Amino acid sequence: MLRVVVLGALVALTGRSGAVTAATAGSVxxxxxxxxxxxxxxxxxxxxxxxxxxxxxxxxxxxxxxDVHMSNGTGGTVWSVGLSDPRVGPALDRAxxxxxxxxxxxxxxxxxxxxxxxxxxxxxxxxxxxxRQAGVGIGAGSxxxxxxxxxxxxxxxxxxxxxxxxxxxxxxxxxxxxxxxHEVVVKGxxxxxxxxxxxxxxxxxxxxxxxxxxxxxxxxxxxETELIQELREAAGGVLPALRIxxxxxxxxxxxxxLTSLHGDAELREDVVQMLLRDRYPDVYxxxxxxxxxxxxxxxSLAARAGLAPADIQRVxxxxxxxxxxxxxxEYEDVALGCGVSDGSPTLAWEGLTxxxxxxxxxxxxxxxxxxxxxxx
Length: 376
Description:
Layout: E1 17-22, E2 42-45, H1 47-59, E3 64-73, E4 76-82, H2 88-105, H3 115-133, E5 144-153, E6 156-161, E7 164-168, E8 183-190, E9 196-203, E10 208-213, H4 218-233, E11 241-246, E12 249-251, E13 257-259, H5 264-279, H6 281-293, H7 298-304, H8 309-338, E14 346-349, E15 352-354, E16 356-358, E17 364-366
Parallel strand pairs: 10-11
Antiparallel strand pairs: 1-3, 2-4, 3-4, 5-6, 5-8, 6-7, 8-9, 10-14, 12-13, 14-15, 16-17
Helix pairs in contact: 1-2, 1-3, 2-3, 4-6, 5-6, 5-8, 6-7
């Protein structure tokens, strides 16, 4: 009989085969589900790897429900963590990313990393890579992501997080001077010696749900519908803002031409939805609900959503005149700015990737029933 309890976020393992549960009070959670079957795909971990995973789960901002089995191998005890629940892999990936951020934030001074710290960082990276290789639907990429206030002093960029300051490598993307003193989200990887190499940096929006989709992805449409309906039906409190973004691919071999997973038809629909979102927001949400249920031409659905005939003509002209520019701006904002280049739907709460979001006075909406993504 083995029982392990970590205070602050309960993590319990009972017996040689049981469930590990980590619960926190955060507003973004992955709901607990029945344990996967023992024969499901799993991670086989040694004691050090399981210790790191255990620590990450204990600090997680998600609620994790894990199926864990313990056995004796030739090299010692082997911990088997089931991954059949599609919510578990992304939640563990985020938990490990958060732990990596905390490890970086704990480093003081400018001296090189200690051997112990380097092993911890390398083990975290290895675990995240193994989870992604298991094919558990992580669509937002492999970067570590965390949030804090951006600071600059004596040519040094620092992100002040809740776990402490993280020194950033000096080459930051975009125009970082604009965000000094503001809350931002950064995505990147630990630098070779110390500090953090930032791949993406963008301002953090509080009380905001960001949903990244492909316009004809059925999984994305399902989450759009749930979120719109839950927000419309919610009563009381300050409701979160909902922002929809579109995932596009660049084709370098074709001069950087943009495309979408489901072909040119989806790319045209992407542009239609971007124009409605940006120019006719009062119609946009109703249009999305109609599109999720119908393959009718966009003009017909827009009219049913309340768009006037003259405005339908303006959207037609906008597609012809501005469609390419609108799509390229979206690609720059989503893939280059936010670092979301694949995986529809991808949810984020206040800039950080989330398995699900809780609507005040409503239900929890998740983005893990399935995903549209390129084969890698």
